[in-house]
Design a protein that fits this description.
By secondary structure, the chain is an all-alpha fold. It has one domain. Helix content is 58%, strand content 2%. Helix 1 crosses helix 5, helix 1 packs parallel to helix 9 and helix 4 packs antiparallel against helix 5.
Amino acid sequence: MPLPIAHSIVGYAFAAATGIRFRRDTMTAILFSVVVANLPDADFLPGFLANEPVLYHRTVAHTLPAAVICGLIVGVVLTRFGKRFWEITLLGTVVFASHLFADMLNLTGTNIGVQILWPLSDDWYSINTPFSRYAEWFNFDRGDDSSGFVASFFSLSFVRAVLAQSVVFAPILIPALWLRRRKTA
């Protein structure tokens, strides 16, 4: 399970690869990527309130239709149907979908993936990686209830997983930033 840092890195890499620029600065693009790339995990909140955080995790919010809907909402909110509406909608959709791609990566050997094509298909899609032999570096116990879930983010295994995922995901920024520079040069 990729953590928010990994989703943020992948989201920014996908955003950079599109070549779509924000009118402001790089910090705006980073903030946009961090927020939109982590939106699918808002599905933890209803389960958290029910004292079972993973109850609704990787359901409707982890699908391509959700990515398109989120992209449309982002486009409307940020442009109010202005001249960059479709460009920003595409960017929102791509960054949201980056989360789905990251969740499909099997880092631990036990990742079931996501139902990315729901409601068209109930199949779960996962991409095997060579990292599963180092599963203990990527895993941490999230806890079964809400208090255990919160406590897990203050554990040493969580810190280890954040560091390991940062090392694995950070290199994807290199080709993404190269593509961005090439498209804008």
